[in-house]
């Protein structure tokens, strides 16, 4: 999460702290403005090329595939800009209990945290690698004629002569790199929230099982069940039955109910922040899958173009799979 927030600050998406030096704030604003302008130019030139080649099905589907992918990036960037405080509060509410769990001596809790951290790092490495291959495939593996750009686009100037060719080429490289980095970091934040809320639900379910003092068939491996339950979150100090020294079934059960309600509130906030982004993700991924499949059947004339289509399809499928998988796991665990 920390690495993702740093890279989003580098892209100008994530807000800076008030104590940030003026020079970094200036760099943050420049990166933000430059990224938005570059994406706008990229979309505009793609749309112009699409409108001018509606009669050519291969060109139209190729442009449509790019537009579908870039549309979800622009939408998520807009959502993160508009709701950055809300998303930041959501991440704080999600990771605060996780930091408390890290202090636990319970081997079951440690095993859950370490396993999920490993798979989170593995997934992040996979998407970074896939994003790198996508940039290389888009820029260098696409078969082009002499003087043509790697991504079809219609500019208001002649891009086949220098220095306009280099200018258009640089704009495309920056737009693709910026867009892929932005979507990777934003998805890492969203998927990370879902993953660690799911972890909290698993531990909460174990706490429910541990409410009985004589229950030896527990999920957690530590016998200090009360300490694990108490470490889940901060409780109302005025509730003597919960915070008092008496350790009974009612007190434990009420603690679990309070934690359960807190988790439900956090998940409701997650839905409010990311539901529209998920809808846009479904639209973009399905569009890319359909258009890429169509292109692969009719336009895969070389190994390089076939590799490009495979990478497109893999990116769309893996992104959709990750969001649906974690969303379904979280939904199942909560309800």
From TrEMBL:
Q: Does the keyword Cell division belong to this entry?
A: no
Is the RNA-binding keyword given for this protein?
no
Keywords for this entry? Cell membrane, Membrane, Olfaction, Receptor, Sensory transduction, Transducer, Transmembrane, Transmembrane helix
GO process terms (BP): signal transduction
The record gives the membrane topology as: Multi-pass membrane protein
Q: Where are the transmembrane segments?
A: 33-51, 57-78, 122-142, 167-186, 279-297, 309-326
UniProt subcellular location: Cell membrane
UniProt name for this protein? Odorant receptor
Which organism does this sequence originate in? Cotesia glomerata (Lepidopteran parasitic wasp)
């Amino acid at each position: 999460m920390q690495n993702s927030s740093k890279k989003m600050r580098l892209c100008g998406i994530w807000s800076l702290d008030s104590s940030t030096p003026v020079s970094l704030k200036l760099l943050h604003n420049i990166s933000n403005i430059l990224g938005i302008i570059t994406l706008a130019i990229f979309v505009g030139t793609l749309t112009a090329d699409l409108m001018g080649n509606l009669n050519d099905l291969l060109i139209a589907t190729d442009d449509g595939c790019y537009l579908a992918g870039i549309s979800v990036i622009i939408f998520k960037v807009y959502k993160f800009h508009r709701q950055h405080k809300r998303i930041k509060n959501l991440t704080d509410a999600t990771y605060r209990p996780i930091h408390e769990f890290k202090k636990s001596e319970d081997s079951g809790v440690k095993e859950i945290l370490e396993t999920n951290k490993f798979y989170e790092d593995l997934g992040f490495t996979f998407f970074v690698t896939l994003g790198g291959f996508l940039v290389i495939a888009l820029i260098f593996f696409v078969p082009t004629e002499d003087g043509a750009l790697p991504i079809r686009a219609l500019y208001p100037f002649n891009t086949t002569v220098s220095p306009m060719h280099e200018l258009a080429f640089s704009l495309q490289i920056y737009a693709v790199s910026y867009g892929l980095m932005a979507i990777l970091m934003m998805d890492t934040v969203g998927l990370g929230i879902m993953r660690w809320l799911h972890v909290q639900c698993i531990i909460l379910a174990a706490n429910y099982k541990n409410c009985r003092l004589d229950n030896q068939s527990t999920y957690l491996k530590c016998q200090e069940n009360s300490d694990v339950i108490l470490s889940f979150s901060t409780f109302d100090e005025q509730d003597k039955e919960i915070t008092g020294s008496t350790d009974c079934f009612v007190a434990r059960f009420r603690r679990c109910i309070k934690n359960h309600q807190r988790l439900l509130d956090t998940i409701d906030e997650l839905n409010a922040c990311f539901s529209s982004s998920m809808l846009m993700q479904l639209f973009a991924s399905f569009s890319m899958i359909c258009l890429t499949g169509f292109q692969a059947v009719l336009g895969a004339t070389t190994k390089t173009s076939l590799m490009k289509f495979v990478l497109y399809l893999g990116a769309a499928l893996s992104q959709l799979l990750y969001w649906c998988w974690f969303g379904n796991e979280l939904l199942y665990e909560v309800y």
